[in-house]
Prior knowledge:
Order of helices and strands: HHHHHHHHHEHEEHE
Distance between the termini: 16 Å
Number of helices: 11
Amino acid sequence: MKYSKEDIWQETKDYISLFIGLTIYALGFTAFILPYQITTGGLSGVSAIIYYATGFPVQYTYFLVNAALLIAAIKILGFRFCLKTIVGTLALTFEFDLFQKLLSDESGQLPMILGDQTFMACVLGACCEGVGLAIVFLSNGSTGGTDIIAAIVNKYRDISLGRALMFCDIAIVSSSYFVFHESQKVVFGFCVLIISMIMLDYYMNSARQSVQFLIFSNKYDEIAEAIGKQLDRGVTILNGEGWYSKEPRKVLVVLAKRREGIEIFRLIHRIDPKAFVSQSNVVGVYGEGFEKLKIK
Length: 296
């Protein structure tokens, strides 16, 4: 299979984004979750529970369990599905180890940066996890662990990925009670889950959000030309008819990134201040100039 320069550049950007997302996740987990003995979801949560109970390093548990899951996943789901998961697993294992060494004090313990403010540590750690995971998912990557289990379950059972992940995370966080015997720790764990999911959804929706313009103007040709040349956006012209006037009208349809909206309004106002414009949000736009259409 041949790859174009555009495909290679897109893959390069995906891997750069993947590493950025993993770094944010690893930093938040190491700085705010581990020192306060808070349990989060996913395989990171399992590794943390084992660490709290036995002292066995998080990164080693994370790597060993992921290695076993990946062997099964490659046979069931195929190597292509697992490639970025393998890269993500190796990178996150390295970063867990790196940040623990960088942040540890002279005694080798991770300091409680925020003192006794456990809930604030919970919030900050969850925010880092949510944003980090969102960047990873937007780059079409994965951190492995329960993602693999959910994908395998989804292949053989009529259970959505989100529901399978939710069941896994609830079981992991709840199991922390058998280590600490404190309901407060379990509550903090669920707070991390909820906040991280909210941040993940918010970041992903913000990154993908686009807008659609319907532009009614007698100077439609000038506006279309300006949008195409100055903003490098495609324009579609629809034939319409005014119900009251019965006169034919040209309607411009433009899809753009949300951040480009103000530039489009300025351009329209400069050419035709009397233009009638409708703007609406769209959930996602896929194709050239927008998010790449990906089918796993």
